[in-house]
Design brief:
single chain; alpha+beta; Jelly Rolls; Rossmann fold; 8-stranded mixed β-sheet; 6-stranded antiparallel β-sheet; 19 strands
Length: 436
């Protein structure tokens, strides 16, 4: 589906936290003029020596049009990770749509390990019943692949500094040399077996990771996400001496699920039970999207547990007043068109929930910073209503930003959060200047 929403979600979740620095791509591109309607095949020999459980090598291919947001085809082998130490051939097949501008393609590696590639080749149907090779790199004379995903001119994604690539002599399947991409000290938030634990809560195993000491700060991710999504922000909070408690919400990330209907109230009770097990009676919370909804419910239903809450882009009703109409219609279609029961359950959560009366927000005692991008998933009028119904609230609308504002304007967002968490809470009013 060609839409900005799909593009954002695919980048954010398929690449698992685009800005984290836990993945890298080395790639090339091929202009597709004259090849519209034809099939293509990307192939390579690949092997991997992984150090993290979720480390993997992959191939990837994307058929672009000229828009900065749209594409026709995308496959990054998300469900086909390569972790074998033995050389094996792998392929991605697709079609060049009418209106396509180019195919971007290459190698993609995640987390720590050594990832080997040889004989990367792109073939396109030649129109005569055969195939024509339009790109081939055997790495015998160096490496022509470029770091990044070749999506925009600034080429800013897939360039994690923790990865290095070089051609080496080795046990290549063909020829003498191959490409090795090595990841060292790659951030592995959400996949860190040393920091990660499971809590038995409400009939599930809830996965969480704990880092640092000091004031507890719980981070709650958005729909379909995981601990990984906010990873670019964690070093900042650790430098501020917070005790980070990072949670994979029920049915997401590494956490378990049951057959019960997924609701925000149930998910919030999971977090409250976790805090009880950890002996934490009061905490700061930063919640994004679904995580912000959970934060509001925790503050409402378990008031003693929340000191301060940063609620980024929460909605409290599941309709077009709480979610922009085109996005809400997409959610409805996802319930019907979801490929797996998990996807359907996550879409149904957004379609039918939450259902929080504005009047109940007035019972929240915690100090709340309500944040939104100025062109968010959640209409600004709805965000304003949430702010107006909270007894102790401040409001911030980040300019020139979307639902991903905390990534798009990361430094500004962190500056706002720091001020809210660290400074004495206040609600000054210009009206007070004119009171007699």
């Amino acid at each position: 589906m060609k839409s900005k929403l799909i593009f954002f979600i695919s980048l954010l979740f398929s690449f698992t936290a685009i800005a984290q620095g836990n993945w890298v791509s080395y790639s090339q591109s091929f202009k597709t003029a004259g090849y519209e309607g034809r099939k293509f095949c990307l192939s390579a020999f690949v092997r991997a020596e992984v150090e993290d459980d979720s480390a993997a090598a992959r191939l990837w291919a994307r058929v672009d049009d000229t828009s900065a947001y749209h594409y026709f085809f995308f496959d990054n082998m998300l469900n086909r990770p390569i972790r074998s130490r033995e050389w094996s051939p792998f392929t991605i097949e697709g079609k060049i749509d009418s209106g396509a501008y180019k195919i971007a393609f290459g190698a993609l590696c995640m987390y720590n390990g050594k990832f080997y590639y040889d004989d990367l080749e792109l073939k396109v149907e030649d129109g005569k019943g055969g195939w024509a090779t339009v790109f081939k790199e055997d790495f015998e004379n160096g490496n022509s692949l470029v770091k990044g995903v070749r999506r925009w001119e600034e080429n800013k994604y897939g360039m994690a500094e923790a990865f290095r690539a070089e051609t080496v002599n080795g046990n290549a399947p063909q020829g003498r040399r191959c490409l090795i991409i090595e990841g060292k000290n790659v951030p592995n938030y959400g996949m860190n077996n040393k920091a990660g634990r499971y809590a038995e809560v409400n009939g599930i195993r809830l996965y969480f990771e704990v880092y640092g000491d000091g004031q507890p700060l719980v981070v709650l991710h958005g729909n379909g996400g995981s601990i990984e999504n906010a990873a670019p922000h964690y070093p900042h909070f650790l430098a501020k001496n917070y005790k980070l408690i990072l949670v994979d919400s029920r049915a997401q990330g590494r956490s378990g699920n049951t057959d019960a209907e997924l609701t925000y109230e149930l998910m919030a009770s999971d977090v409250a039970a976790l805090l009880d097990q950890l002996g934490i009676d009061s905490t700061f919370i930063w919640g994004h999207s679904d995580g912000a909804i959970l934060g509001l419910i925790i503050a409402k239903n378990y008031p003693e547990k929340v000191k301060k809450l940063v609620a980024f882009a929460a909605n409290v009703v599941p309709d077009t007043t709480g979610i922009e109409p085109p996005i809400y219609r997409w959610v409805q279609r996802q319930v019907k068109d979801a490929k797996t029961e998990k996807e359907r359950k996550m879409a149904r959560l957004m379609w039918k929930h939450p259902n929080i009366p504005f009047s109940e927000l007035q019972n929240i005692r915690a100090e709340v910073l309500v944040v939104s991008g100025d062109r968010d998933f959640v209409p600004l009028a709805h965000t304003l209503q949430i702010y107006q119904h909270l007894p102790k609230a401040q409001l911030c609308v980040i300019p020139g930003a979307t639902h991903g504002a905390s990534w798009e304007k990361k430094d500004l967002f962190l500056q706002l959060v720091d001020a809210f968490f660290e400074q004495k809470f206040a609600m000054p009013s210009s009206v007070d200047w004119f009171k007699e």
